[in-house]
Specification:
It is a single chain. This protein is of the alpha+beta class. The chain has one domain. The chain is built from 1 helix and 5 strands; from the N terminus they run E-E-E-E-E-H. The protein has a 5-stranded antiparallel β-sheet with strand order 4-3-2-1-5, covered by helices on one side. A hairpin with a 3-residue loop joins strand 2 and strand 3.
Length: 84
């Protein structure tokens, strides 16, 4: 799942889009490039996210910057707006 975008399904950040930076057995670590940067990752239970695989692209997270994360999320959300 690392490198894919994901929706938050629950919590105060419900319906926000994040990039999955890391994962372990039960949790994923997310960044949005704005509030949750690569220095301050959001720890979230895997049950509380929905992975977005329809974009078909994964991001190489080892060298990703906060600006690139923000741009990728913005492009995805822009594409959603055009479809609606």
């Amino acid at each position: 799942m690392i490198g894919y975008l994901a929706y938050s399904l629950s919590g105060h950040d419900k319906d926000r889009v994040y990039l999955i930076i890391n994962e372990d057995k039960d949790f994923v670590y997310l960044a949005d490039g704005d509030v949750r940067t690569t220095d301050r990752l959001k720890k979230k239970n895997k049950k509380h996210i929905q992975v977005i695989k329809k974009t078909g692209r994964r991001t190489e997270v080892s060298s990703v910057t906060n600006e690139e994360i923000k741009y990728q999320i913005k492009q995805y959300c822009k594409g959603i707006q055009e479809v609606k």
